[in-house]
Amino acid sequence: MSTQITITLPDDVYLQAERFAQLANRDLASVLADTITSLIPPVRSNGLDLQPISSLSDREILDLSALQMEADQDARLSQLLDRQQAGLLNTDEVSELQALMQIYQEELLRKATALNEAVKRGLIEPLK
User: Fold this and answer.
1) Would the pTM of this model clear 0.85, i.e. be above it?
2) Which domain of life is it from (predicted)?
3) Domain ranges in the chain?
4) Which long-range contacts (CB under 8 A, 24 or more apart) does 75-82 make?
């Protein structure tokens, strides 16, 4: 399934994409779609509240600003990263590490966005 959209690109980006499409003998739309697909990381579809940060209450913003990974997940992530650095990960652990890194990255992005909103609202002081 596909959804057709219209986007406005800066001229230099359009020309760069058009040149690449010609070089690769591909149509521009498929080059842009593949580029977007490869650059946007996957996002878990379950267990993640994707309500816009700007629509949250001050209390919810502050709670998100203090968001931390669950202690057991954090400990396991550290163990797996240590094992990875030592070159000792098995196949199951690689998958587990990828899943935990996904959770970590999503929560970090959500926390950073909440911190930005908290500063905008004057709830906390900007970092110096």
Assistant:
1) no
2) Bacteria
3) 1-40, 53-121
4) 76/100, 77/101, 77/104
